[in-house]
Amino acid sequence: MEHRLYSSVKVGPYQLSHRVVLAPLTRLRSAQPSDAASDMMAVHYGQRASQGGLLIAEGTAVSQGGRSYLGAPAIYTEEQVTGWKKVTEAVHAKGGRIFVQLFHGGRQSHVFMTGGAAPVAPSVVPQFQSVALTDEGFVPVSPHRALAIDEIAAIVEDFRHAAKMALKAGFDGVELHGANGYLPDQFLQDGSNQRTDAYGGPVENRARFMLELVDALTSVWGAERVAVRISPSGEWGDISDSNPDATFGYLAAKLDAYGLAYLHIIEPRIKGDDTLHEGQADVAATTLRKVYKGTIIAAGGFTRESAQDIVARGDADLVAFGRHFSSNPDLPERLKRNLPLNHYRRDAFWGGDESGYNDFATYEEQAKAA
Ligand SMILES: Cc1cc2nc3c(=O)[nH]c(=O)nc-3n(C[C@H](O)[C@H](O)[C@H](O)COP(=O)(O)O)c2cc1C
User: Fold this and answer.
1) Fewest CB within a 10 Å sphere: which of 117, 141, 151, 298?
2) Residue 322 CA to ligand 1 centre (angstroms)
3) Considering only CA atoms, which residue is closest to atom 1 of ligand 1?
């Protein structure tokens, strides 16, 4: 009998044909200086599209102040919309679906990326490990400043604007990047949020910014085409919380009430972008499934077997793959048929040309060439 991972599932209004999703992967190959999606990116996403499959495009800045990494794309100008149209057309031509991940780096940035302004955050909390990427390579982040309460609404508006631009660019939905220590996560977790106003203190206040962003996105797209990504055990960006179970349990319950496309949960095996803690079970989706009844995508260190298992158990409905999808454009087919995988090229992850990006063959192409 065919495994459930390769069976049809409904995500928001979309009937997908399988449950193997491309995780958002920042590959730093946008056109410069426009931050528009490049032709190389259209080829890349097109290669990974499959009939009825779901792709999540990489973290995409909603404003200049939200930029963190040189070469990452953005979605707040017309030129950027034009770039993304080529990507969405390439994916749709193959019958695939694509959401874009909306990103604001908050304190994980550098004045070079924000146009000279100090990066913003809920509070000023020194960070010791965070980096931004500028034309001088990965550098320690710039000192940040705390947002005044009357500045927060403008950031919510930036997300609303980006959501409208995503609609124009032909995406099928938007995923809020609420994970990995960026601005929404900085508000949510108490290690980075020490505010004493309506956006700080109890979890009801710390979750406010994230929920206001969800309201803004759903005002443009409707709830069923909006998703949120969270990383309950992430450590990237010096992020921490004194009671993650309570914090993420509260948030998941609130999000459940919206009827979103999906909640995307990164498992604690992954602490940052790709630091893997082997042997750690998939506990995040399992825990949050108790309060989140809608569609769950789990991500982080999954193999064919563990992905099949979590979907069979029902703790996740779909599984997103990052690194394996980077080097296997036909990953859903390879997993389904239990075919060997190409190894990914870490040296080509962050920036570069087509090499290590668009030059991975499908299994059929490799078989023909052999
Ligand atoms: C090169 C690279 C870039 C990434 N960029 C993003 C990103 O833009 N947004 C995000 O939420 N996660 C990002 N991640 C995390 C992945 O989406 C995923 O959670 C992680 O790779 C673990 O999944 P895997 O074990 O299947 O690779 C990135 C990871 C890598 C390796």
Assistant:
1) 151
2) 5
3) 349
Q: Ligand 1: which of 20, 273, 282, 305 to mutate, judged by most atoms within 8 Å of the beta carbon? A: 273
**Residue range of the domain that includes 326:** 4-369
Active site residues: 182
CATH value at residue 353: 3.20.20.70
Residue that the structure tokens 């797209």 belong to: 221
User: Where does residue 111 rank: exposed (0-12), middle (13-18), buried (19+ CB within 10 A)?
Assistant: middle
pLDDT computed for residue 124 by the predictor? 96
CA of 91 relative to ligand 1 center, distance in Å? 20
Low-confidence ranges of the chain (pLDDT < 50): none
3-state SS assignment for residue 264: strand
- Looking at the 3D structure of the chain, how many domains does it have? 1
Task: Find all residues with CB under 8 Å of 33, minimum gap 6, and list them.
Answer: none
- Predicted pLDDT at 117: 96
- How far, in Å, CA of 59 to CA of 209, rounded? 18
Tally of CB atoms within 10 A around 295: 21
Is 177 touching ligand 1 by the criterion CB < 6 Å?
yes
Instruction: Please name the residue whose Cα sits nearest to atom 21 of ligand 1.
Output: 322
Task: Output the pTM of the full model.
Answer: 0.97
**Running DSSP on this structure, what letter comes out for residue 130?**
-
In terms of residues, how long is the chain? Answer: 370
pLDDT digit string (tens) for 240-262? 999 999 999 999 999 999 999 99
